[in-house]
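Running this now, will post back.
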Amino acid sequence: MRRTTVTAPIPDVLFRAACPDCRSRFELASEALRLAIGASRRTTFYSFTCPDCGASVRKPAGERIVELLTTGGVRTMRLARPATD
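Update: finished.
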């Protein structure tokens, strides 16, 4: 007898966010966020566009935030270090 394994579809991951401009709170799908990983904590951040007021929002991302966003499928960009002479 053959067994058939049925896997449930992976639910969309939603992230809670807030806009510092209009103070709105909302949930965003992973496709609405971008993560940039730099050489230091100062150059590691995530960004999104506020769905209510349209503001471009950029917030710092510590280790835990980076882990949550990458695990949740957020597109990630690694920032190159500037060339030194």
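Strands lie at 14-18, 25-29, 34-37, 45-49, 56-60, 75-78. More later if anyone needs it.
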